[in-house]
Design a protein that fits this description.
This protein is α/β, with parallel strands linked by helices. 56% of the residues lie in helices and 8% in strands. The protein has two domains: 162 residues, Rossmann fold (3-Layer(aba) Sandwich); 122 residues, Zinc Finger, Delta Prime, domain 3. A five-stranded parallel β-sheet has the order 2-3-4-1-5, with helices on both faces. Helix 5 packs parallel to helix 6. The longest helix has 22 residues.
Length: 329
């Protein structure tokens, strides 16, 4: 179980506002937790529920071991309801169920909490039902709406919620979380520079594809350094066959960008920022061979290639042109 202090390391503003509200007994009747996947919205909504329901809460910190805390963790508390979309959307029937449940006396206390996941996915009927619910708040009811896309929600609902914005995880914290899940440091550092979303990072790492993609990027840079005429053949036989669609090709170019950024870090004496930590000797040798201006031109070439991915350009032709530009440096 996480504590408020632990959550504060990556969402300090949100934690400060919530803990202050708990201390002053000024909990809003409705909150909107808005932010990307993996930023801790649901975890913190359950933490708030525990703080409000805990039998042994100290200051703002729930004990985590009492009956209420344990049942909230397991999803079995009778006065804490978590609703997730049925299929692609939250339905009117789900909101009506909540209204019926909350019209009853609390099973074990006067407090009632409901958490709506993906609140932006409500049908129009569900949104209108929720709006009526929010317009007639009970003093002992707290709503927590979770969303990654607040702009898709009705303004009338947004205006009745206190909005708390969840920031992306800092890369250092994401790396730490990944390493704790037995992800090798070299992969953790790499994926943390591709995404700052823990869920997405774990998804990328769940099979060997990402590790193999990283390996191919290193092999490409080796071929480029050798300035071999066989580099174009290698692109055809290995790169194009591995990065088979636009999404994968874009990711491959992102990984290539990181390599050339590492060259700049090495040239600037900022080795601690290098992503390809297992290739530092090779990066050092290349950084001594080329100028910063050349590396900047190579980065520009990769960025231009990324833009052209979406122009329906043939992937092999795109990569052949990029290789020639990179070899010019």
């Amino acid at each position: 179980m996480h504590t408020w202090n632990e959550y504060k390391t990556f969402q300090p503003i949100v934690v400060q506002m919530l803990t202050n509200a708990i201390k002053k007994d000024r909990i809003a009747h409705a909150y909107l937790f808005e932010g990307g996947r993996g930023t801790g919205k649901k975890e913190m909504s359950l933490q708030l529920a525990k703080s409000l329901m805990c039998e042994n809460c100290y200051d703002t910190e729930p004990c985590g071991t009492c009956r209420n805390c344990q049942r909230i963790s397991s999803g079995n508390h009778p006065d804490v309801h978590v609703l997730t979309p049925e299929g692609q959307s939250l339905k009117k029937e789900q909101i009506l169920f909540l209204q019926q449940e909350f019209s009853k006396t609390g099973v074990e206390s006067n407090k009632k909490i409901y958490i709506l996941e993906h609140a932006d996915r409500m049908t129009i009927q569900a949104a209108n039902s929720l709006l009526k619910f929010l317009e007639e708040p009970s003093s002992d009811t707290t709503a927590i709406l979770l969303t990654e896309q607040a702009h898709r929600m009705l303004d009338t609902i947004l205006s009745r919620c206190q909005k708390l914005s969840f920031k992306p995880l800092p890369s250092e914290l994401l790396i730490e979380k990944l390493v704790k899940q037995d992800v090798p440091l070299k992969l953790a550092k790499t994926v943390a520079n591709i995404t700052n979303n823990l869920t997405e990072a774990l998804s990328l790492l769940e099979n060997d594809w990402f590790a193999q993609a990283r390996k191919l990027v290193i092999q490409l840079t080796e071929a480029l350094n050798q300035r071999s005429e066989f580099t174009l053949i290698w692109i055809h036989n290995h790169w194009v066959k591995f990065f088979q669609d636009r999404v994968q090709l874009n990711l491959g170019l992102d990984l290539l960008l990181l390599w050339y950024k590492d060259l700049l870090y090495m040239q600037a004496g900022e080795e601690e920022k290098i992503v390809y930590i297992d290739q530092q000797e090779m990066i050092k040798q290349e950084a001594l061979r080329v100028s910063q201006q050349t590396v900047a031109q190579q980065l520009t070439a990769i960025l231009m290639a990324k833009k052209r991915i979406h122009s329906n350009m043939n992937a092999q032709l795109l990569m052949e042109q990029l290789v020639l530009r990179l070899q010019e440096g």
